[in-house]
User: What shape does this take?
Amino acid sequence: MDDVDQVILESLITNARTSKASLARKLNLTEAAVRKRLKKLEKSGIVVGYRAVLDYQKAGLVASIMGVDTQPEKLWKVIEYLKTLSEVKTILLTSGDHMMLIEIVVKSMDMLEEVHGKIGRYDGVMRVCPAIFIKSVK
Assistant: This one.
């Protein structure tokens, strides 16, 4: 990965809908060269997808970030379980206060409470610390 790839990645992080033509102009490359670089970044697993960033409140959704701690020997079992829950959108292994942080998005506070409880009761989960999104500021 070189400086050009870095600029491409930074542009995509800021706006995943940045056009190849716009990237080509910014980098003084052809669109074909940008397409080739993007394909390489995707094949190598550096770019794993493209997402819409939502204002959950305006979309009528409720979201939270939850710190989750597990019994160490059951970490991967818990992760596999979390991957099956459609409400869990992101799972991040972390250092610091929690073993992982997960993002949960649902349609109501009642559903959020239900999902939080379901995760907290799952075999191997020792502690959950949810924080409900109030407003996104950046």
Remarks:
- The two ends are 28 Å apart (CA to CA).
- The chain has two domains: 3-43, 62-132.
- The longest strand covers residues 62-70.
- The chain has five helices and four strands.
